[in-house]
Design brief:
The complex is a heterodimer of chains A (163) and B (917).
Chain A: H1 10-20, H2 30-41, H3 46-56, H4 60-69, E1 81-86, H5 89-93, H6 96-107, E2 120-125, E3 137-139, E4 142-144, H7 152-156
Chain B: E1 3-6, E2 9-12, H1 19-25, E3 49-53, E4 62-65, E5 76-78, H2 82-95, H3 113-121, E6 144-146, H4 156-164, E7 171-173, E8 180-182, H5 197-200, E9 206-208, H6 209-212, E10 222-223, E11 226-227, E12 236-242, E13 245-251, H7 264-268, E14 283-285, E15 291-293, H8 296-307, E16 312-315, H9 322-332, E17 337-338, H10 345-358, H11 366-370, E18 374-378, H12 382-385, H13 387-396, H14 399-407, H15 415-422, E19 429-433, E20 445-448, H16 451-465, H17 474-484, E21 489-494, H18 500-516, E22 525-529, H19 535-542, H20 549-557, E23 563-567, H21 577-586, E24 589-594, E25 606-609, E26 618-621, E27 626-630, H22 643-653, H23 665-675, E28 698-699, E29 730-731, E30 778-779, E31 803-807, E32 832-835, H24 837-843, E33 850-853, E34 859-864, E35 872-875, E36 890-891, E37 893-895, H25 904-914
Helix pairs in contact in B: 8-22, 9-22, 9-23, 10-18, 14-15, 16-17, 16-18, 20-21
The chains are: A alpha+beta (163), B alpha/beta (917).
Chain lengths: 163, 917
């Protein structure tokens, strides 16, 4: 139960403490702290979560309630780049199913799965706010719009697609 | 009071109420889930939807949530219209999408609020054909069973556990249909009030684990009004029995005492009644030292032979009823009757009793405690010594929030809004104890002092309140100011530290607050925690002159005692082994009346098996001075009889002049009330045995009690006659009416359409208010007139260089009876000694090491409590290994030779669980 190795790095702690300086209660930075750790590690493990909770003087339950509420705080390991494929109504009308099939064909993973080389994780998302350019998805930090199932490889290759 | 119209009928409703509670109070059935009378409204479940109309002309109306809608003069609502009822039906249908419909194998079945509400809205056929969401359940410890699939996400559990009870290890996880209520990882729920989840959850997500293993439906349980004997708070309970076993304990509402909630010692502490260490038959020790079982006539004959005409002394018990103690005292004479508490405790108990009777402050009920707006806790960790008080204090610190809400014109039931408004603002609670307590998370300030220092601190506060010079003690001055600023200041102290000066100090603070009082706007309260269910009754019975155990020992050694009768007491928990051995060695005959085998039984010549509090009638006096009566839930098996019965038989055989004509419990109660002026009020604790509800006795069995004729069919196909109850107004029967009786006689709650405990509101005039038949119990102590305030006393102190043994009771383990109950027993830690960091350093020990007490060879595991006052060595009385330790004695410690450390991970986990407070 007690982690012998510190589960938070010095830089993580410094970044969290910088946030704490702005709020009245330590627990108020719960979301920021989770995002900081996720930015450093890609996801938030149970050990990290307990370490953050201790640092914020919260119980692990209180923090886990926050962490699991947000589906972009990853409580399981994800690939190097996360594909967030919108399957909400506009994208659905505009054929997101075909996009998803193309991704699956290309990478061999379905929704919620990670490629064997740990490069990609594919997740559905409910809206990316770009309905006028549907279907859309994000790969890592990049938004890809007007997706064409035939050219999905281009989006996945990391080439910018910001037109 | 505003008048509103519901479905063309006019109702007068309480000012400031919400529509849901108004409907329920008016007797209308409006379904709900998330609302709870003790927790208010959040509007989460959408089940109590009704239609509200703007005015007479409005024919369409709009849907509003009953629990979130304040009632206003002239408002027009419809409950039964298609729009409202159709909406409610749709809500429940959607709530039920993922529900497994496993009622047949669910421990909630038959008393399930979800079942009741589903039937109430008329949702019958399932239309959903999709997959149901399934969850993995968690192990939550030995008390609460988790079955997450049944959840309808009303959020009542976390609102109770976190918001109401201050627990931190249960949370709502995830969102939409993944929502999961549980812990971060599996493990025992850390709140001492977790068991209330069983009653708070409207369905079967949280059920009573000790019941699940020996399951009986509510409709098959026989119940009677009872009082918890786990501590001195006197919470009202409803134990349920089937096949001669106590199956479970539910809360019995009492507006002045426990309200809707119990602690886990109370809920799970009755398993001792089923224990295999219960004594079934009387036993007489033969010449060869073995016990021979006797039938009850022979046992009585022996009892009489060994008692009548001999020099007899008696030791009573603070866990036995007033009546049983009174009879034993009458049998042996008041000069030869010891109350049966330790030498260290007896003066504190007598002092506390005297102070309660003389203080001009109010000795508060739990409801009063919840109304306090500034609290000073002196000495006790009340979560462990009087647990339900701690839950009440968690509500009193919220009075600041209600003040802020009133300024904003928010009603108290606007739960989410008020919590949001107040955030971390609380009414002040200052805790002055030897080390950290479970209430520290809501305390404004904590001070860690030795018992004598706490007493000095209290007198310093009193001096500051009386205008004395407090320059030397700014902390005391600050506390005095806090109390001075409050309208309902509350001082809590207790006997657990065996420090009389501390009690005096508490009374001095309360007295000083009263004497400052001029305009009647302030109502100071003084609550003194005593240890056991009838400690206060015992002190009132015995008075100040009762001999203590040492006195009895001296008299026994002088040959003045031939026969010693011990009533429901294991003397080895009341002194050191040597002291008790000396007493028992010095008398010729030892007679023990008790329910369970004990070290004292092993020294007895005659043992008479006593019925437990759940199998007998009696009165106990709570720490509030409230006399409350408990009734037998079932007839005890084998040759067990109440102590009252055994003693009354003996008194009659002895031709005792006051008892020859006494045959009935009521007559014993009356005799006690007239013989002991301080107990005169016990007659009013509950109606006598001749009370009838609607002309008949009150049934212990619900109208759906099944299988009565077949219950013993495996033994004999001939159905025995139902037992007759000649003593109480209750019957071992389904016949009769459970309606309108006084609160002290309420055997269970059940109302047509309301099979769950939520039917309670049908027994209240106003939802959340007192029971229609009246609140159970009679207060024996009311505030005295102005009296002398205790002078600053010299606290007992020992050489500063010595370590002092400080009792720090544990909710699970320090109480003798509950410690023998499944569940509670599993949560009892092994014996340990807690040291301050400085003392541990001096001794050269670390957490997990072993130490021995000077003069003994018992080894204890060391725990280090950084908050503990230097010089204090804390132990939990009652734990195996801690029995016989003398509270407040000076001790020397040394490293235990041959000590084997426990697994390091286990020690770390203990530490972590402790730190969750």
């Amino acid at each position: 139960m007690t982690e012998l190795i510190p589960a938070l790095s010095d830089s993580e702690i410094a970044a969290i403490d910088a946030e704490i300086a702005h709020v009245p209660y330590r627990s108020a930075v719960a979301i920021d702290a989770l995002k900081i750790v996720q930015a450093h590690r890609g996801w938030v493990s149970d050990e990290s979560l307990r370490a953050i909770a201790r640092h914020l003087e919260m119980s692990a339950e209180e923090l886990d309630g926050v962490a699991t509420f947000y589906n972009l705080i990853f409580r399981q390991p994800v690939g190097d780049r996360v594909i967030l494929l919108c399957n909400s109504v506009t994208c659905w009308i505009k054929g997101c199913d075909k996009v998803q099939a193309a991704i699956t064909e290309n990478l061999g993973i379905g929704l919620g799965e990670t490629t064997a080389d740990n490069a990609f994780t594919l997740l559905p998302v409910t809206c990316l706010g770009a309905c006028d350019r549907a279907p859309v998805m994000m790969v890592g930090d990049d938004l890809h719009q007007d997706l064409d199932p035939a050219e999905i490889e281009k989006a996945l290759s990391g080439e910018p697609n910001r037109d | 009071m505003p008048k509103i119209r519901i479905d063309n009928q006019e109702y007068e409703v309480p000012e400031g109420a919400n529509l849901l509670e108004s409907c329920l109070s008016a007797g209308l059935d409006l379904p709900y889930f998330c609302w709870h009378p003790a927790m208010g409204s959040v509007g989460a479940c959408r089940q109590c939807a009704v239609v509200q109309y703007q005015n007479e002309e409005d024919t369409r109306g709009r849907i509003v949530m009953g629990c979130m809608t304040p009632v206003t003069e002239g408002a027009i609502f419809s409950l039964t219209g298609d729009k409202a009822s159709g909406f409610r039906q749709a809500v429940i249908e959607s709530l039920m999408l993922n529900h497994p419909h496993d009622c047949a194998v669910c421990a909630e079945g038959g008393e399930c609020h979800l079942q009741d509400m589903t039937v109430m809205v008329g949702h019958r056929d399932r239309r959903y054909r999709g997959l149901k969401k399934t969850h993995r359940n968690q192990y939550l410890g030995p008390l609460v069973h988790h079955e997450m699939n049944r959840c309808i996400t009303c959020y009542r559990c976390t609102r109770y556990y976190r918001d109401y009870a201050g627990g931190t290890d249960l949370a709502a996880m995830a969102s939409h249909d993944h929502v999961f209520f549980g812990r971060h990882d599996e493990g025992t729920l850390q709140s001492e009030f977790a068991g209330n989840l069983v009653e708070v959850c409207p369905t079967g997500v949280f059920t009573d684990k000790t019941l699940v293993g020996q399951y009986t439906r509510k409709w098959d349980l026989q119940s009677a009004p009872s009082v918890c004997v786990g501590c001195a708070v006197g919470c009202n309970t409803v134990p349920g029995e089937r096949y001669g076993k106590v199956k479970r304990v539910h809360n019995r509402f009492n507006a002045e005492v426990n309200g809707y909630f119990l602690c886990d010692r109370g809920r799970y502490g009755s398993g001792y009644v089923n224990s295999d260490t219960r004594l079934p038959y009387p036993g007489m020790r033969g010449a060869e030292g073995r016990f021979t079982a006797l039938n009850h006539h022979d046992a009585l004959a022996e009892f009489e032979r060994l008692t009548v005409g001999r020099r007899v002394a008696g030791i009573g018990s603070p866990r036995a009823s007033v009546e049983a103690n009174f009879l034993l005292r009458s049998l042996v004479g008041s000069d030869s009757f010891a109350p049966g508490v330790s030498e260290q405790e007896q003066p504190s108990l007598q002092r506390a009793t005297a102070l309660m009777r003389s203080t001009p402050a109010r000795v508060p009920s739990l409801a009063d405690i919840e109304s306090a707006d500034a609290i000073l806790v002196l000495g006790d960790d009340v979560t462990h010594t009087a647990p339900r008080v701690a839950l009440a204090l968690r509500q009193s610190v919220r009075n600041r929030a209600y003040e802020l809400a009133a300024d904003m014109k928010l009603q108290p039931w606007q739960d989410a809004a008020i919590r949001n408004l107040a955030q971390e603002q609380r009414s002040p609670l200052v805790s002055v104890t030897p080390g950290s307590t479970r209430l520290d998370d809501v305390a404004e300030r904590t001070l860690h002092l030795a018992p004598g220092e706490i007493a000095e601190f209290a007198f310093a506060v009193a001096a500051a309140l009386s205008g004395g010079d407090s320059a030397g003690n700014p902390e005391a001055a600050a506390v005095a100011q806090m109390l001075r600023d409050a309208r309902r200041p509350l001082i809590i102290a207790g006997t657990s530290l065996c420090e009389e000066a501390l009690l005096d100090g508490a009374a001095a603070v309360a007295g000083a607050l009263v004497s400052r009082e001029a305009d009647g706007t302030r109502a100071p309260m003084l609550s003194l925690v005593v240890p056991e269910a009838n400690s206060l009754g015992q002190a009132l019975l015995c008075g100040d002159d009762a001999p203590d155990l040492a006195t009895l020992t001296a008299r026994a050694e002088a040959g003045e005692i031939e026969t010693l009768i011990v009533l429901e007491n294991d003397l080895y928990r009341r002194g050191t082994g040597e002291e008790i051995d000396r007493l028992l060695d010095a008398v010729t005959t030892v007679i023990v009346l008790d329910g369970m085998d004990s070290a004292t039984c092993s020294r007895a010549d005659l043992v008479l098996p006593a019925a437990s509090a759940i199998e007998s009638e009696g009165t106990v006096v709570s720490m509030e001075g409230r006399a409350q009566r408990y009734y037998p839930v079932f007839v005890p098996g084998d040759e067990r009889h109440s102590s009252l019965y055994w003693l009354l038989c003996c008194l009659k055989a002895a031709d005792h002049k006051h008892f020859v004509d006494i045959n009935h419990v009521d007559e014993v109660i009356a005799a006690c009330a007239s013989a002991v002026p301080a107990l005169a009020g016990i007659v009013d604790a509950a109606p006598g045995g001749s009370y009838r509800s609607h002309g008949v006795r009150i049934p212990r069995q619900p109208h759906r009690y099944s299988g009565r004729t077949a219950m013993r069919a495996n033994i004999s196909v001939h159905e025995p006659k139902q037992p007759q109850d000649e003593e109480s107004p209750l019957a071992y029967s389904m016949e009769g009416l459970n309606r309108d009786e006084p609160g002290s006689l309420l055997p269970f709650v059940w109302s047509p359409g309301w099979n769950s405990n939520q039917s309670l509101h049908k027994f209240q005039d106003e939802v959340g208010g007192a029971l229609s038949g009246g609140t159970a119990g009679a207060r024996l102590i009311e505030a005295a007139g102005p009296t002398t305030v205790p002078e600053a006393a010299t606290p007992s102190s020992i050489d500063a260089a010595t370590l002092e043994l400080i009792p720090r009771p544990a909710i699970f383990g320090s109480d003798e009876l509950s410690a023998r109950s499944a569940g509670v027993r599993d949560l009892m830690p092994d014996a340990y000694l807690e040291l301050s960091v400085a003392d541990a350093k001096t001794l050269g020990v670390e957490a997990g090491d072993g130490v021995v007490l000077g003069g003994s060879d018992t080894a204890f595991e060391v725990r280090i409590d950084p908050s503990l006052r230097r010089g204090c060595v804390a132990y939990a009385p009652g734990l195996n290994g801690c029995i016989g330790l003398v509270p407040r004695s000076g001790v020397s410690l040394s490293m235990a030779p041959d000590w084997k450390r426990r697994d390091a991970d286990l020690i770390a986990r203990d530490g972590q669980e402790g730190s969750l407070s």
